[in-house]
Hints:
Elements: E1 5-9, H1 14-25, E2 29-34, H2 37-51, E3 56-60, H3 66-79, E4 85-88, H4 106-121, H5 123-128, E5 132-137, H6 159-180, E6 186-192, H7 199-204, H8 214-218, H9 224-227, H10 229-236, E7 246-249, E8 252-254, H11 263-276, E9 283-285, E10 288-290
Parallel strand pairs: 1-2, 1-4, 2-3, 4-5, 5-6, 6-7
Antiparallel strand pairs: 7-8, 9-10
Amino acid sequence: MRGRVCLVTGANRGIGRAIAEGLARQGAIVLMVCRNGELGEIAKAQIMAATGNHQLELFIADLSVQSQVRQLVRDVTAHHARLDVLINNAGAFLARRTMTVDNIEATFAVNHLACFILVNGLADVLQASAPARVVVVASEAHQRVSDSEDWLSVREYNGRTAYNRSKLANVIFSYDLAHRLEATGITVNCCHPGVVDTPVLRGLYDRWWSRWMWPIVRRFTITPEASARTALYLAGSPDVEGVTGKYFKDSRPATSSLISHDPVIGARLWNLSLRLTGELPPITVAGEIIAAH
């Protein structure tokens, strides 16, 4: 990985921090994307001190805000003519329904739409750097989705359900993107990092009826460093050179849910993503606007 340019979102804590440090230890040029500049600077300094690698750069962006994700694309391409690895790690869990400044449900906006905008926005520089790799940190939580197309949780909102659904979107998007980028030299894979003691996981149990479960669940969690191994494997291992459109667990190909392979759901998700990011207009039928959500 020495000298390769690698971008990691959500890089100042948890899994993203561990991935960034792992890449730095391997000699990569690491572009750290963080929401909070102060915390990002602290993490960057700590990683530099721990690894001796000073080729770390900090980019600040709130991934819930589409204009900031697009600015991030411009900033990265302005500073770098190549990008070898893009790791979409940043994620959010919100116990209560929250709307972004773009009027989109925030869990879906951060966990899926930011990834959608970022990867598509950086596709040209990735292709120019081919062979290049895209890694999407998903979750086994995607297996627990029943209502697979209420992406914005319009019918009802439950934080855990919204999170699971956004992780399903990650897997579907990875498969669809891998197909669309065939023959470009860009591979796209997603992975389950394991059950990790992170703020996102703690948030899943931070309700009065589930807090009692956290001490039990925590006994079965792994460290962020252990959870970063599969993403780091997909980012740099020669074993997966040319491998694309796969879901990995413990650095091995695994089986994702049946729904994740449904081409109709995948096409609908792609089109919805285009509409929610302003790339397609709302559907008009008989003079009426059908809202994308």
